[in-house]
Amino acid sequence: MFGQAICNKCGYDTFGFFGEKYGESNCPVCGDHLIFPDIEPHDFEVMTKDEKEEYKKALRNNVELDPQLVAKRIAYIAKQRSENITLVKAVPRCQKCGSTKFTPVRKKFSILTGFATNKVDLICNNCGTKIK
Known about the structure:
Blueprint: E1 2-7, E2 13-17, E3 34-35, H1 41-45, H2 49-59, H3 67-84, E4 102-106, E5 120-124, E6 130-131
Antiparallel strand pairs: 1-2, 1-3, 4-5, 5-6
């Protein structure tokens, strides 16, 4: 089943695939059973932040969350996010058109020395500008 799941104790909420039986999964933060609300994922996503909090509080029967478990949830989410950060490789861009597609063109020899060289110029595939 795909949908939203909310934890009653720590407030953890997520979208995803869950067990075959309705309500089978447990919270990854505190181990409590997750609640599967009777709402379409799109309907939940278009709610404002305040509406979402009110909706989740109503699902919990207006019971306040355990502050220690809330802190544990925040630490869990921060750890997940830090593990999911990927390093973005710097990609050269054409100064004229902004394209990232280039063709490498090898220099045959150096004008200054007259000797063969291993240097390469990049030529933009979009506008033909030479990038050094």
